[in-house]
Please model this.
Amino acid sequence: MSRDYHMKTIPGNTKPVSYRSYITGFIISLSFTFSAYGLVVAHLNTGHRWPGDHVLLPIIIVLALAQFIVQLVYFLHLGVEPRPRWKLLVFGFMTLVVAILVFGSLWIMNNLKYNMSPGGTDTSIIKDEGIHK
Model:
């Protein structure tokens, strides 16, 4: 009997990767996701007292970055192949595109809020632009 169904070969890699790494990455990712969800639910159920607002956001950001690294290592196998230069170049370009999309969207939403806010628009524009009557 052959055990080849447990192994997957990554193009450009001499070492096969087992499905065990996929399952391990999936379990770690789920634990990070449920941890963040549990913290937010606990925060809402305690009336925003535990964990505090100033503590919750950094914890969620750390969990998100940890999950990002887990997905890079276990699912995309970044750093497993002998010459990871091309994957790293593609990853860097993808990061640049995502950053442009995220910060561009935030910039557009901020401008929409500024230009489309009802009631008191004149006073907020006068205050923001430093215009004195």
In short: The mean pLDDT is 84. The longest strand covers residues 7-8.
